[in-house]
Amino acid sequence: MNYHGIKAIYFFEMNRTWRTIMQSIASPVLSTSLYFIVFGTAIGSRMVEIDGISYGAFIIPGLVMMTLLTQSVSNASFGIYFPKFSGTIYELLSAPVSYVEILLGYVGAAATKSVLVGVLILITARFFVEYQIEHPFWMVSFLLLTSVTFCLFGFIIGIWADGFEKLQLIPLMFITPLAFLGGSFYSINMLPPIWQTITLFNPVVYLISGFRWSFYGVSDVNVEISLAMTVLFLVICLFVVRWIFKTGYRLKM
Amino acid sequence: METVIKVEKLSKSYADGFEALKEIDLEINRGEIFALLGPNGAGKTTLISIICGIVNPTSGLVLANNFDVVKDYRAARSILGLVPQELSTDAFESVWRAVSFSRGLFGKPRNDAHIEKTLRSLSLWDKRDSRIMELSGGMKRRVLIAKALAHEPKILFLDEPTAGVDVELRRDMWQLVRELRQDGVTIILTTHYIEEAEEMADRIGIISKGQLILVEDKNKLMQKLGKKQLKLSLKNKLNQLPEALTDYPLTISADKLDLLYTFDAQSDDNGIANLLKQLSQHDIEIGDLNTSQSSLEEIFVQLLKDSA
User: Which residues pair with B291 in a beta bridge?
Assistant: First the structure.
């Protein structure tokens, strides 16, 4: 194991985070605060409780999850796309590091950042609404698992993308809609039956539902299924990454 | 002599059928400076990129220090350093951080003293806290060299190290390369500046259209293919060669004041003595004379012409 190599990549990436602190951390926190002001405080005060939880508190897990997903994908994809774009990837490819080490460095740093953003949002939310965390262990587990999984997914997108447009495409066209429709702002039980069934094909539903369960002990779908779906997605991403490094897809000519 | 890099039947072809390298065989000796010379698009960078792990070979084998660069990539790569042709740098990073990163990436523990020494030797010490984007092109080139040297490689690849570099930096670079060689580092450089190969290399490989046409000791190459030319400045204009001298490979210059004689530098009897005797017999007076040896450039152009 090239520990120095992992450390070098990790801290290099973290340093990029601190350097671009405004985009990296401040802006997701700001935009989430806006959601709380609009949906939580302004509109939420006129909403009925969902599953016995005030609307403001109900949307917290969804909002954290939504930000976590978009941040993880964009952080991780940018982290590996930029060296490709600037040409500095030559160094990574010529270094004695295995793909597992490259992943630990890049995905580790991106996931750290995502978790940091998630925790900051939870702290920010505290200023707007009261909430409790019933299953802290599972809350942290979901937070970590989701961050790592979607950072891996972002890493794949960063390797696949051959332009800045493609880099933006996935978060914009897929992650945000899936997160919005995945029950960030509502319980899927509020939907007509046919849409409830369709919604079950949205993987984000399982993430948000599981995460919300860790807060309030209520969920739209079974928690075990939530967990299994997330792990399944993680494993799929791992296989794709392994294939990328084996074949050199979009990395080596 | 010990071989540090061994390339066997290395080929690279792309999906569109383009063959960048065709069955290259090459051995690099420990401690030498090897220049890979060739026109643009000849395959120099592809060859280096395969050895360093940036490009996958189509077939063939590369050993670095007896380690297969594909199977034992970790052992092989940790002794290789690469300075790429393009000025690809982390624009927003400081020089110090970028160079320290490279050391870590190659699996070496932190060593500030070594980084300092490297930066000083490249006149980058004063710029250590500058962001790379603020540096000039020449300085960026130095940063790339510092990054490649950060992990104390045993074999250094310099891909077109002096392309677009001013004279002063080029001299510095040559000096640095010689120092590295003294420290036992093997150096492989690609260039299309022939004077660079002539100035620095111990051996020269000439590559054209993906094939190594020749690998030879530099001095031997220059001797073997070197022609010398004797220029005789005449005191009076000479309109026509005397009958007796027409057998000599002589040409009269346009202003009819110079006589040019081409001969083989390796030949035992170069014919100069007889020529001079004949000239004086025909009352052709000589004011001055000098000889010049054909440069590597001329040899190179000749070789490429022959192989075309």
Answer: B230
| B40 & B171 share domain | yes
User: Looking at CA atoms only, how far is residue B57 from chain A in angstroms?
Assistant: 9
In-domain check, residue B299: no
**Which helix (DSSP H) or strand (DSSP E) does residue B233 occupy?**
strand B227-234
Same domain, B178 and B161: yes
From chain A, the residues in CB contact with B72 under 8 A are none
Rounded to a whole number of angstroms, the distance from the CA of B100 to the nearest CA of chain A is 8
Are B70 and B120 members of one domain?
yes
Chain B residues within an 8 Å CB radius of A90? 54, 82, 84, 88
Helix extents (H) in A87-135? 89-94, 99-126
The answer on B280 and B154 residing in a single domain is no
Q: ipTM of this predicted complex?
A: 0.88
A88·B89 Cβ contact <8 A: yes
Q: Quick check: helix, strand or coil at residue A66?
A: helix
Residue B270 contacts residue B262 (beta carbons within 8 Å): no
Sign for the CA dihedral angle at B164, B167, B171, B176 comes to negative
Nearest to B73 among A5, A12, A96 (CB): A96
Q: Is the dihedral of CA A220, A224, A227, A231 positive or negative?
A: negative
B215 and B235 share one domain? no
Phi, psi for B136 (deg, rounded to 5) = -75, 170
- The answer to whether the beta carbons of residues A83 and A92 sit under 8 Å apart is yes
* Ordered alpha helix ranges (H), B19-94: 44-52, 73-77
| Cβ pair B242, B282 in contact under 8 A | yes
pLDDT along chain A (253 residues), means of 10: 95 90 81 83 79 86 91 92 92 94 95 93 88 93 94 94 88 87 86 88 89 90 88 92 86 73
Total number of domains constituting chain B: 2
Q: Which amino acid is at B161?
A: P
Report the residue of B72, B78, B105, B151 to disrupt the A interface, i.e. the one with the largest count of A CBs within 10 Å.
B105
pTM: 0.84
Cβ separation B103–A8 shorter than 8 A: yes
Under-50 pLDDT residues of chain B: none
Q: With an 8 Å Cβ cutoff, is B78 touching chain A?
A: yes
CB proximity B287 to A under 8 Å:
no
